[in-house]
């Protein structure tokens, strides 16, 4: 019987592969490989579709564009199962950070939204045009209320900012500043997942996504491990009159990383959404009780002042 001799590693295990955790190849249903779970137009809210889904293209384009050709069997199957089980779609708020007519952060936000949309998410994009600077006089401004309502509605956020002067833009930060940091002792964004991406005009940088990650952590959001940074963004998108609707992200490693991030975001969000209350439960935010008191018994049995709220 022939044997195979493994050549010795002359420089040792440089990548420490011997310590890697053994994994199994995921079983996938090929029926989901290129399936779209997008909400059909006749089942969608026409007001929401017009105001918060500017990324949707004509059916003819959507049926054959690069997003439709992505092999996403496992995450699509997982998303479909979650929709059937819960009866609700994953709700994602997408925010970008520029007011330019041809804004590359907006174009990237639209591409991210198209992938999320195909994966069955209820996607809503916020347009920052008209949002005032943060102050103490505009809390009732319609654009402020719109942003806060969308954040409250969402299960997760996907943030896309340009990098200017080495960091995120004021347009983007103003949106975050208008989202309340706390309501009482609880942060309104607490427990939501967060996807991160950035564009820059020069060489590749990670300053902005790193700053976004800090912001998300401060707001008690769960930022996914992956992130996308697109350098020289003006070279990465097609012309406005090009194929597939124009202004589309070009094929290459940068685009592949964007797909990775969106896929990862959906997987993490679906897993964590089922345990939203569990992840939001913190010792410091619960009422203090003393051992042996009625209050402790009530808390452990799910009762308040001896009353089972589930029976009311």
Automatic annotation (TrEMBL):
It comes from the Eukaryota. NCBIfam families: resist_ArsH. This is NADPH-dependent FMN reductase-like domain-containing protein. Gene3D superfamilies: 3.40.50.360. GO terms for molecular function: oxidoreductase activity, acting on NAD(P)H, quinone or similar compound as acceptor. It holds the Pfam family FMN_red. Coiled coil: none annotated. Residues 91-233 form the NADPH-dependent FMN reductase-like domain.
């Amino acid at each position: 019987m022939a044997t195979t001799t493994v050549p010795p590693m002359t420089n040792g295990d440089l990548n420490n592969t011997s310590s890697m955790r053994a994994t199994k190849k995921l079983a996938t249903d090929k029926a989901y490989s290129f399936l779209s779970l997008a909400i059909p137009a006749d089942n969608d809210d026409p007001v929401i579709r017009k105001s918060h889904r500017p990324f949707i293209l004509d059916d003819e384009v959507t049926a054959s564009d690069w997003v439709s050709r992505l092999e996403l069997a496992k995450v699509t199957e997982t998303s479909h199962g979650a929709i059937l089980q819960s009866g609700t779609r994953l709700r994602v708020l997408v925010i970008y950070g520029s007011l330019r007519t041809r804004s590359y952060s907006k174009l990237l936000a639209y591409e991210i939204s198209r992938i999320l949309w195909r994966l069955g998410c209820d996607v809503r994009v916020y347009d920052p045009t008209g949002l005032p600077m943060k102050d103490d006089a505009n809390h009732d401004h319609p654009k402020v209320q719109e942003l806060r309502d969308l954040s409250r509605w969402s299960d997760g956020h996907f943030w896309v900012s340009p990098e200017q002067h080495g960091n995120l833009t004021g347009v983007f930060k103003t949106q975050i500043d208008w989202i309340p940091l706390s309501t009482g002792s609880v942060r309104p964004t607490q427990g939501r997942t967060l996807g991160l991406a950035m564009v820059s005009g020069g060489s590749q940088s990670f300053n902005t996504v790193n700053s976004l990650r800090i912001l998300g952590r401060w707001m008690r959001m769960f930022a996914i491990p992956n992130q996308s940074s697109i350098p020289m963004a003006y070279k990465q998108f097609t012309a406005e009159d090009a194929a597939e609707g124009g202004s589309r992200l070009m094929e290459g490693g940068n685009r592949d990383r964007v797909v990775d991030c969106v896929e990862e975001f959906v997987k993490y969000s679906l897993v964590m959404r089922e345990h939203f209350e569990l992840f939001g439960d913190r010792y410091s935010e619960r009422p203090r009780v003393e051992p042996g008191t009625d209050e402790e018994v009530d808390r452990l049995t799910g009762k308040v002042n001896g009353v089972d709220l589930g029976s009311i």
